[in-house]
Amino acid sequence: MPDPKPSRRKARTPAEKSLVDFDRPPVNEVVCGIGFLRLQNLSAAYIGLWWSENRAQFTKIRTKEPIMAFAEKDEFPIVGRTMFETEDEGQIIQIQPTRFYYNWVKSRRTNIYPRYSKVYRAFTNHWSKFCDFVSRNNIGDIQPVEYALTYVNYIPQGEPWQKLSDINKVLPDISWRKTRKRRYLAEPFDLNFRYVFALRDQPGRLVATIQRGVRKSDELPILRVELAASGTTEDGLEKHSPETMSHWFDGAREAIVLGFLDLTGDTVQIKTWGRKD
Q1: Over the chain, what is the mean pLDDT?
Q2: Is the previous residue joined to 77 through a cis bond, with omega within 30 degrees of 0?
Q3: Cβ(104)–Cβ(85) under 8 Å?
Q4: In the chain, how long is the greatest CA-to-CA distance?
Q5: What is the pLDDT of residues 24-73, one digit of tens each?
Q6: Which one-letter DSSP state was computed for residue 128?
Q7: Mutual angle of helices 242-263 and 116-136, in 10-degree steps
Q8: Phi/psi at 210 (nearest 5 deg)?
C-alpha cells in the first residue's frame, strides 16, 4: 500500500528494496534508459569524442537505427543510435541525440546476473559522466522527459517446456488446448504475445512481450520474455532529479519483478529458477 504520509517517508534506494529472489534467475539482459529533448548539437564529432574518452572500457562500436518513441515524437529525422560495447559484450552504452541507455548483458564472462542494485548504480554513474561530458562541451541542456527499464528473460527449451504447446507450464495465462479429437491446426512452431498494463502507484506502463527465439550461444530454442516499463512527462512523470529518477526506477523494478511472478507458474519458479520467498 502507498505510504499515507509521503512527506514523512524515508527514501529507499533500489538496493534496499526487498522482493522475491531467485537462485538461478532467467535474466539475460537489463536495460536502464533516459529519453530527453533533442540535443541539437550532439553531432557525430561529439559522439567520437565521447568514445575517445571512454574507449578503454567500451572497446567496440557499432551503429543502429534510432529508437523512435515518446522523446522523438516531434523530432524527425533523428541521427542514428551509436552503441559502445565492452570487450566481452557484457555492458553496452547506447547514445542518440534524444536518448542514453545502459545495458547489462549476460555473456560468457558475465554469466552471473549482478542484481539490480549494481546495474542501476552502473547506469547512474555512466549517466552522470555523460551529463558532465555534455556540459563540459557546451552541447546543450539535458531535459529528461522519459524513463525506461527493461528486463529480458531467456527460458530455454527443456524443463518445463519441450514444445510451444507446453507454454502453459511456464506462462499459465497462455495455453494450447490439447483435445482428444484431432485439431485442424497443427501445434504452433512460433508465437508472439504482447500485453500492456498500467503501472501501479506511479506514471507509466508495463509491456510484456513473449516470443519464441533462439539463443545465439548454442542455438537452443528459447522463450523470450521481455518486461519493459516506461514513464513519460505526458504520463505525469515528475520533474527530473536524482531522487525522482531513483524513485521511479525503484517502482518500475518492483512492477517488473512482481509482474514476472504473476505471469509465470509457481512450479517453474521454484524448481527451475530456485525462488526464494
Answers
A1: 90
A2: yes
A3: no
A4: 71
A5: 999 999 999 999 999 999 999 999 999 999 999 999 999 999 999 999 98
A6: H
A7: 140
A8: -120, 125
Q: Is 44 exposed, middle or buried (0-12, 13-18, 19+ CB in 10 A)?
A: exposed
Q: Are 214 and 208 in contact (CB under 8 A)?
A: no
Set of cell numbers at residue 95: 547514445
Residue type (1 letter), 231: G
Distance CA 115, CA 110 (A): 12
pTM of the shown model: 0.91
Domain chopping of the chain, boundaries: 17-276
* Beta-bridge partner residues of 97: none
3-state secondary structure of 148: strand
For residue 252, what are the contacts with CB-CB under 8 A and spacing of at least 6? 147, 149, 199, 202, 204, 206, 229, 231
Using the 8-state DSSP alphabet, how is residue 187 labeled? P
Q: At what angle do helices 116-136 and 44-54 cross, to 10 degrees?
A: 120
Q: Please give the Cα distance from 196 to 163 (Å, whole number).
A: 25
